[in-house]
């Protein structure tokens, strides 16, 4: 950090944070209301999961991986399972690959709708929060019907999935998708045409294409800056190679790419629409077959005890690319496991995004990259010798005040 | 468009609320008293929403069928199952169970199944209600 | 644009063999297929020597101006520490992305390696993590702070190691009940 001059203040925000999902400690250097410089420190919910994984056999690690994150609770065990399947040379039946796509896209819809509600809440638009989360309840009901539980789905198995989707279940799926399609136009109208959203988000928190490439941003954060990066298309896994879709960048809707918060809203809303179409394509072309390559789990465990090798599994979570590296050493427990959640790649881009913004914009810019859980925090502003604390309510109120000022 | 949410908000005032009022319309000031009243019959509890089939709730154990192979213990991610050496049967601690139902899938004689009970709160981790054997 | 001319995995591996013949101890190409249309994807693994590691990374820029850096993984095995750097090139073209993984072996007596943050600024968090978890020393790293472990944890204990500097003393089995 550069030495503090007489006109700038140091503002620490973190570790447990207003608009952020993972506890992160920021140090802002501010001049009046504008942010001049930012530095980031991490590590406040370190749970030693990778170390705990080395004491468990692969099937137990599946459930440990599911609890890394609540919203991306499908991607982590799936990416782990991809890595293990490549080490052990297990071939997944085609029916199971299509089922995996359906569950993944359902999770993407849930996550983007949740994010839409949180973003509206940060701006101060609570009625949109309730509208979006009511839509999400219907999708969670469908997940409970298909998997047995709303969030921790427990549907992954090495070599396939654990439950089948039989043709009797199709009417319920189509009914939920129709409900989503009817409500989608309303969501789109509120988010993209409403004057408050446009004023608060256009021109705010810009990430240029060069910076996104240099800092290895992933997911909708990178796509909103014009970088075409999507693991489902670049290096297809499951059945995505058979399906018909394209990269979602903001110029699909508006024709230009700015890399600001408004573009990220566009990318996420269009992805919801894309997910609905992908699920319909899957249901239409579903091949028949087994749901898992080895139904006797004791035999699977015995096989995994003898393999030796290393493998990687990459998947497109709702927030970006999730990456797992697994090494197995012909032992009951796995030897080494590395998890890279997408938010860790998206933290470095905060620094160029936040420079030049106002303090009241911190919640919406941080929330626009969709970091992973929601917590509250205390912000301390140190001004000469007096320090006073702004807690989450006040930061949130500041954000709402700005909306009112702009509307007036 | 400035007031894009206004039609929604006004329409909602005349519709039934979406939230299911379980267990009562307003939070009771003392939960234990409320439960006593319900068992007496003086108060009424709104039922929760019906769970779908194959919901993963409390585990059910069929003791006669169990053969003591210990496969479920090997696979449990939370080490919630304990083996009783003398009887060659198992004991499941619900305080540690994460309801993944992996033990159901691996059991060779299918003696484990998941019911749809989910109201399992208790004050003591090792109370009788939370141990299945 | 060099990105538009896609080299096949064999050509890429051949160009590495030509440039760094002695310093590549092993390499392999893995091909997997997925879906009904049997789409193929490729992983390339290269075990490269520490002394030419930086040039090996610069060589990657010949194929793609902006390779994507994913993460660094590492583990310790006998007397060495193995670090694996995961990259991918040709993103943006459907079904054409290749994953390239570089493995570097460091002896435990001298676990130093050069930084790559001048080529890939997004790699800073990964390098800090390896420093504190495995005891690797990264030369010229911009900041030496700990990133995931709190500052009051002892500096000579490395959580990912399996030898005497591992965290065995700090592990508590919370679920062991006093009988």
Note the beta-strand portion of chain A: 5-15%
> What structural category characterises the helix and strand content of chain A?
alpha+beta
Count of DSSP-assigned helices of chain A:
16
Query: In DSSP terms, counting alpha (H) and pi (I) runs of 4 or more, how many helices of chain B?
Result: 4
Strands ordered across the widest β-sheet of chain B: 2-3-5
> What count of domains describes the coordinates of chain A?
2
CATH class of the largest domain in chain A: Mainly Alpha
CATH architecture assignment of the largest domain in chain B: 2-Layer Sandwich
DSSP strand (E) fraction of chain B? 5-15%
Q: What characteristics describe this protein?
A:
heterotrimer; A: 408 residues; Enolase-like, domain 1; Cytochrome-c3 Hydrogenase, chain B; 2 domains; 3-stranded antiparallel sheet; 16 helices; 47% helix; C: 179 residues; alpha/beta; Beta Polymerase, domain 2; two-stranded parallel sheet; 17% helix; 32% strand; globular
Describe, in plain words, how this protein is organized in 3D.
The complex is a heterotrimer of chains A (408), B (133) and C (179). Chain A has helices at residues 49-53, 58-66, 75-88, 94-123, 126-147, 170-193, 195-201, 209-214, 220-223, 231-234, 261-284, 297-304, 342-347, 350-354, 362-368, 392-407; strands at 9-13, 25-31, 34-41, 156-157, 160-161, 308-317, 320-329, 336-340, 378-383, 386-391. Chain A is α+β, with helices and mostly antiparallel strands and 408 residues long. In chain A, strand 4 and strand 5 form a beta hairpin. The longest helix of chain A is centred in the first third of the chain and has 30 residues, at 94-123. The radius of gyration of chain A is 22 Å and the shape is globular. Chain B has 133 residues and is of the alpha+beta class. Chain B has helices at residues 6-12, 31-40, 71-75, 102-106; strands at 59-61, 81-84, 89-93, 112-114, 131-132. In chain B, the strands form two sheets. Chain B has a three-stranded antiparallel sheet, with no helix packed on it. A two-stranded antiparallel ribbon of chain B has the order 1-4. In chain B, strand 2 and strand 3 (89-93) form a beta hairpin. The model of chain B has no long low-confidence stretch (mean pLDDT 83). Chains in contact: A-B, A-C. The interface between A and C is large, with 46 and 46 residues.
């Amino acid at each position: 950090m550069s030495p503090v001059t007489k006109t700038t203040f140091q503002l620490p925000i973190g570790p447990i944070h207003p608009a952020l999902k993972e506890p992160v400690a920021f140090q802002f250097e501010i001049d009046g209301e504008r942010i001049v410089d930012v530095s980031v420190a991490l590590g406040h919910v370190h749970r030693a999961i990778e170390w705990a994984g080395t004491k468990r056999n692969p099937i137990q690690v599946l459930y440990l991986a599911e609890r890394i994150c609540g919203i991306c609770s499908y991607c982590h065990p799936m990416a782990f399972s991809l890595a293990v399947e490549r080490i052990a040379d297990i071939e997944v039946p085609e029916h199971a690959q299509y089922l995996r796509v359906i569950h993944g896209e359902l999770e993407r819809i849930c996550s983007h709708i949740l994010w839409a509600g949180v973003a509206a809440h940060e701006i101060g638009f609570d009625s949109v929060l309730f509208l979006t989360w009511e839509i999400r309840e219907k999708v969670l009901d469908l997940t409970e019907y298909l998997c047995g539980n709303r969030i921790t789905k427990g549907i992954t198995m090495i070599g396939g999935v654990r439950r089948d989707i039989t043709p009797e279940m199709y009417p319920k799926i189509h009914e939920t998708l129709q409900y989503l399609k009817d409500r989608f136009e309303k969501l789109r109208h509120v988010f993209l045409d409403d004057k408050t959203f446009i004023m608060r988000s256009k021109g705010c928190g810009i990430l240029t294409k060069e910076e996104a490439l240099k800092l290895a941003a992933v997911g909708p954060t990178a796509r909103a800056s014009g970088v075409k990066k999507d693991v489902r298309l670049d290096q297809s896994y499951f059945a995505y190679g058979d399906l018909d879709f394209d990269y979602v960048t903001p110029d699909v809707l508006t024709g230009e790419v700015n890399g600001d918060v408004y573009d990220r809203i566009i990318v996420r809303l269009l992805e919801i629409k894309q997910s609905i179409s992908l699920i319909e394509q899957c249901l239409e072309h579903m091949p028949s077959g087994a749901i898992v390559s080895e139904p006797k789990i004791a035999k699977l465990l015995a096989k995994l005890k003898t393999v030796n090798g290393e493998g990687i599994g990459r998947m497109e979570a709702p927030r970006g690319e999730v990456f797992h590296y697994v090494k197995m050493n012909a032992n009951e427990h796995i030897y080494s496991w590395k998890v890279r959640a997408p938010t860790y790649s998206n933290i470095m881009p905060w620094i160029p995004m936040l420079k030049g913004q106002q303090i009241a914009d911190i919640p919406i810019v941080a929330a626009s990259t969709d970091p992973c859980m929601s917590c509250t925090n205390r912000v301390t502003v140190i001004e000469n010798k007096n320090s006073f604390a702004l807690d989450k309510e006040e930061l949130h109120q500041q954000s709402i005040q700005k909306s009112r000022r702009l509307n007036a | 468009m400035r007031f894009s949410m206004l039609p929604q908000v006004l329409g909602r005032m005349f519709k039934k609320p979406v939230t299911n009022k379980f267990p009562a319309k307003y939070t009771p000031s003392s939960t234990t008293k409320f439960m006593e009243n319900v068992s007496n019959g003086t108060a009424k509890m709104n039922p929760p929403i019906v769970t779908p089939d194959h919901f993963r709730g409390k585990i059910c154990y069929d003791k006669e069928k169990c053969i003591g192979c210990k496969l479920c213990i090997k696979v449990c991610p939370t080490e919630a199952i304990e083996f009783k050496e003398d009887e060659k049967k198992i004991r499941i601690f619900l305080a540690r169970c994460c309801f993944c139902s992996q033990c159901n899938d691996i059991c060779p004689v299918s003696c484990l199944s998941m019911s749809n009970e989910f109201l399992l709160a208790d004050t003591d981790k090792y109370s009788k209600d939370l141990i299945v054997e | 644009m060099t990105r538009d001319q896609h080299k096949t995995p064999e050509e890429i591996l051949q160009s590495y063999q030509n440039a760094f013949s002695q310093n590549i101890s092993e390499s392999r190409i893995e091909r997997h297929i997925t879906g009904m249309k049997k789409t193929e994807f490729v992983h390339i693994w290269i075990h490269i020597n520490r002394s030419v590691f930086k040039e090996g990374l610069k060589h990657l820029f010949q194929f793609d101006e902006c390779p994507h850096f994913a993460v660094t993984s590492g583990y310790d095995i006998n007397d060495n520490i193995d670090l694996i750097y995961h990259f991918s090139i040709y993103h943006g073209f459907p079904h054409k992305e290749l994953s390239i993984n570089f493995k570097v072996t460091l002896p435990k007596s001298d676990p130093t390696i050069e930084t790559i943050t001048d080529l890939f600024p997004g790699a800073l968090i990964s390098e800090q993590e390896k420093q504190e978890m495995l005891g690797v020393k990264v030369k010229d790293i911009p900041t030496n702070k700990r990133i995931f472990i709190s500052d009051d944890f002892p500096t000579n204990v490395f959580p990912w190691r399996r030898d005497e500097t591992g965290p065995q003393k700090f592990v508590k089995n919370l679920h062991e009940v006093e009988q």
